[in-house]
Amino acid sequence: MSTPTSWMLRLLVFTGLLSGVWMAGSWLGISRTQRWPGRGDRIRVLATLFPLYDFARNVGGDAVEVRSLLPPGADPHEFALAPRDVQLAAGADLLVANGLGLDEFLARAVGLAGGSRAPLVEAAAGLPTLAVHDDHRHGEAGHAHGGGDPHLWLDPLLARRMVSRIARAIAAEAGARWGEELARGVRLRSVAYGEALQALHEEFRRELAPARGRPFIAFHGAYAYLARRYGLNVAAVWQTTPGREPSPREVGRLLETARRLRVTALFSEPRFSTRALEMIASDARLPVFTLDPIETAEHYESGSYLGAMRRNLAVLRQALAGPAP
Ligand SMILES: [Zn+2]
Q1: What is the number of other CB atoms lying within 10 angstroms of the CB of residue 207?
Q2: What pLDDT, on a 0 to 100 scale, did the predictor assign at position 258?
Q3: What is d(CA 307, CA 314) in angstroms, rounded to the nearest whole number?
Q4: Domains of the chain, earliest start first
Q5: Ligand 1 center–CA 304 separation, angstroms
Q6: How far, in Å, is the centroid of ligand 1 from the Cα of 307?
Q7: Which of 312, 141, 112, 114 is nearest to 229 (CA)?
Q8: CA of 206 to the centre of ligand 1 (A)
Q9: In contact, 63 and 187? CB cutoff 8 Å
Q10: In the predicted model, what is the mean pLDDT of the chain?
């Protein structure tokens, strides 16, 4: 005899099975595209975040095969390793991380793979960093890391320094394997990409001149380097701890700050639910724009750091560089 409860149970088991099948399917899809190709004539570079992935493939060209540990859309702040990550770490010839506590999941993947002899480049480590002002934490919840704010890539000139570090490591690998000619190719591409970053910087400087000092509220604490470079004014941050919505008390404080400093824009981020932010913004009659911290990308193949930065520039201009209200 079937009671409503047993039907409910059956339905739950059935949908559970279905979602299990779906998950296995998507899992296979991911592992198929993310697996290393056979050992050939390319250096297998494993990067953690999208910008590092994009820098490595731009300077590496046909000398490299690049993979990223963070799949499209994943959040480095709350990333959990999967078995495919351990396989990627085990097969890599060169490891490219940001450092400063943002991507310690790479070290965990390497540990689970039983160690690695691949050289490790920490692209941001050792560069002059800004302190983390709020309780913005990366990696495992509640695990605070020292070493400063990790979001250096959002300043094109710091990105340029990160790129040359990555290029040096790839050139060294290429030189050791195939000789000076291939290493020279990497260095040439690094110079060209460095010039593209310099041009990006000039665009930001020119086009954001009217936005100097105009206060805004950012979604999470990722924009300090960008703000410092172009004189932007981050008045407050919506999520002081990534992934945690502000409490009513914190929202009250944000609105107070917004009124006091005459904030004219709020910024959300792609890939996050912004319903709460939008409700508050509509109450306070503030427009919401979307700014991308480029910690990951929707499409790794077709996406680019330069493209995402230019979209950010257009948004910042629209939000902050118009006539003052
Ligand atoms: Zn972040």
Answers
A1: 15
A2: 94
A3: 11
A4: 41-204 (3.40.50.1980), 211-320 (3.40.50.1980)
A5: 18
A6: 19
A7: 312
A8: 26
A9: no
A10: 86
- C-alpha 180 to ligand 1 mean position (Å): 38
pLDDT tens-digit series, residues 174-187: 999 989 998 999 99
Alpha carbon of 154 to ligand 1 centroid (Å): 11
- Amino acid letter, 94: L
User: Which region holds residue 168: left if phi is over 0, alpha if psi is between -120 and 50, else beta?
Assistant: alpha
pLDDT higher than threshold 60 for residue 28: no
Tens-place pLDDT, residues 96-154: 999 999 999 999 999 999 999 999 999 998 899 999 865 444 443 333 456 799 999 99
Instruction: Output the CA 127–ligand 1 centroid distance in Å.
Output: 17
Tell me, in angstroms, the distance from the centre of ligand 1 to residue 88's CA. 23
Give the model's pLDDT for residue 274.
Answer: 77
Cα of 118 from ligand 1 centre, angstroms: 26
CA of 295 to the centre of ligand 1 (A): 7
Token pair of 74, please? 């994943």
- CA 182–ligand 1 middle distance (angstroms): 35
Which residue is listed with tokens 């509220």? Answer: 217
| Nearest Cα to Cα of residue 199 among 306, 50, 123, 61 | 306
Q: From ligand 1's centre to the CA of 204, what distance in Å?
A: 21
Beta partners for residue 120, in sequence order? 95
CA 66 – ligand 1 centroid, Å: 22
Give the model confidence (pLDDT) of 220-250 as tens digits: 999 999 999 999 999 999 998 888 899 999 9
pLDDT tier at 18, thresholds 50, 70, 90: very low
Q: How far is the CA of 151 from the centre of ligand 1 (A)?
A: 6
